[in-house]
Design a protein that fits this description.
Elements lengths: L2 H15 L1 H8 L3 E6 L2 E5 L3 H21 L6 E6 L2 E2 L3 H4 L11 E2 L11 E2 L14 H12 L8 E5 L5 H15 L5 E5 H13 L3 H9 L3 E5 L8 H16 L3 E6 L11 H7 L3 E5 L4 H18 L9 H8 L4 H18 L5 H7 L1 H7 L5 H11 L4 H5 L5 H17 L4 H7 L5 H15 L3 H15 L1
Parallel strand pairs: 2-3, 7-10, 7-11, 8-9, 9-10
Antiparallel strand pairs: 1-2, 3-4, 5-6
Helix pairs in contact: 1-2, 1-3, 2-13, 5-6, 7-8, 11-12, 11-13, 16-18, 18-20, 19-20
The structure holds adenosine-5'-triphosphate.
Family: Belongs to the DnaA family.
Main location: cytoplasm
Subcellular location: Cytoplasm
């Protein structure tokens, strides 16, 4: 088997183990070899190998067999050591990361299962997601439909699915009679194709037109799939005409989804479009603190040293899923070896995640990208010119440097031609002020951010 084949099989495992487990436990596996029915993977720590072996090796074996690989056993090794001996495996297992899911609706509503953990109570609100949260809350109250659809978008692992599930849970509690259907755009397509194949398209149409609330996750998936788009468009219109609430999520704004028909884009823009911004330090810390509270009952007696959460919030900036995965791994490991969670333990146990998050953006990269976008010279970023066509992009670069790098204002000032930190602060504030009214500026910032963090 080649690395490439493993890559493909690995992707398929998302469906079996869920996205969170996938990112935490499956993605870090490095394929070594497959010989005489034994497939070997390299893992970052022996604990890691042990955990995957206990929880996921059956899935890995089954998926490899489905892909035509003859696999009887799955083994893990750290560098050239193999998985730890039996006694360690018998140690107390932390609870599984994924709790039982429950169906999202009544029997005849074939939605995707809802994750019981994804509620409003467990959603930590901070500046980057407060608008999305408020809009989701409004929809979840189930009052008169004021904006349709609610379109939530943002990068990977920032809480779109969490908010959608929270809306569904809340609606079901407040108004159990409502027919709430939650599914991914991919499932929408499969159901549509199945209905076509089985000549039950009328049933399909009837079902989707009879819901009170339709929620479709990851709508970018239907881009480029012509007949699915067509059907989605008609479903959408039929529901809007009946004044039924629609909630949609995607990884980018409607206008930025390539190969999505213009008429769909414009419909999606008709309601309220809100962005989940990349997390900031405070939000990450809040999420970690909340998780630790949850873990306290599960891992009784486990002590976490001061500064560990701050360290993680500072260093793991990629996305919340990775952050949660890191904490889960840390607790599982500490409980297994019966040790306090110290900074050293975190550094050892999470070395691979920390390394991956280390790819830090530099101020120079930000200056270059912003200069390119506004078609000015890179030297003007650090130069003295004060005309607005140059000063504004410079302030945008200052703002992004503050947002996207851990540098202090004086450090940023030094990289902008030795400017004083108060000048940087002024620039950052100016942009924040303009953001409240200037939608073009907001669009530019979003695009730049995405490109820089790509
Ligand atoms: N503000 C938050 N408070 C608490 N947990 C959060 C928050 N944001 C994200 N999470 C958690 O992070 C994980 C990833 O979130 P979610 O699955 O909702 O991301 P997503 O935006 O749908 O990502 P994708 O684009 O990959 O589908 C989940 O376990 C979710 O509970």
């Amino acid at each position: 088997m080649t690395n490439e084949t493993w890559g493909l099989v690995r992707e398929e495992l998302i469906k079996r183990v869920g996205k969170n487990n996938y990112v935490t436990w499956i993605e870090p596996l490095k394929f070594s070899d497959l010989n005489n029915g034994v497939v070997r993977f390299e893992v970052p720590t022996s604990f890691f190998g042990d955990w995957v072996s206990r929880n996921f090796s059956d899935h890995i074996r089954a998926q490899l067999n489905t892909a035509g690989q003859q696999v009887e056993r799955v083994e893990f090794s750290v560098g050239n050591r193999s998985t730890p001996p039996e006694p360690m495996r018998a140690a107390t297992a932390p609870a599984r990361a994924k709790p039982a899911a429950r169906p999202s609706d009544t029997d005849e509503m074939p939605g995707a299962p809802l994750d019981a953990r994804f509620t409003f109570d467990s959603f930590v609100v901070g500046k980057p997601n407060e608008l999305a949260h408020a809009a989701a809350r409004r929809v979840a109250e189930g009052g008169p439909v004021t904006f349709n659809p609610l379109f939530l978008y943002g990068g990977v692992g920032l809480g779109k699915t969490h908010l959608m599930h929270a809306i569904a849970h809340e609606l079901q509690t407040r108004q159990p009679h409502l027919r709430v259907l939650y599914l991914s755009a991919e499932q929408f397509m499969y159901r549509f194709v199945q209905a076509l194949r089985e000549r039950q398209i009328m049933d399909f149409k009837e079902l989707f037109r009879s819901v009170d609330v339709l929620m479709v996750d990851d709508v970018q998936f239907i881009a480029g799939k012509d007949s699915t788009q067509e059907e989605f468009f008609h479903t959408f219109n039929a529901l809007v005409d009946q004044n039924k609430q629609i909630v949609i999520s995607a990884d980018r704004a409607p206008g930025e989804i390539k190969d999505l028909e213009d008429r769909i884009k414009s419909r999606l823009q008709c309601g309220l479009v809100v962005d989940l911004h990349p997390t900031d330090y405070e939000l990450r810390l809040g999420i970690l603190q909340q998780k630790v509270e949850l873990y306290r009952s599960q891992y009784k007696g486990l002590v976490i040293a001061d500064g560990v959460l701050e360290f993680l919030a500072h260093r793991i900036t990629t996305n919340v899923r990775v952050l949660e995965g890191a904490l889960t791994r840390l607790f599982a490991f500490a409980s297994l070896v019966g040790r306090e969670i110290t900074l050293e333990l975190a550094q050892d146990c999470l070395a691979d995640i920390l390394r991956a998050s280390d790819r830090k953006l530099t101020i120079e990269e930000i200056q270059r990208k912003v200069a390119e976008h506004y078609n000015i010279r890179l030297s003007d970023m650090i130069g003295p010119k004060r005309v607005r066509t140059i000063a504004r992009p410079r302030q945008i670069a200052m703002y992004l440097a503050k947002q996207l790098t851990p540098r202090s204002l004086p450090e940023i000032g030094r990289r902008f031609g030795g400017r004083d930190h108060t000048t940087i602060m002024h620039g950052v504030r100016k942009i924040e002020e303009l953001m409240a009214t200037d939608s073009q500026l907001n669009d530019d910032l979003q695009m730049l951010r995405r490109q820089l963090q790509g």
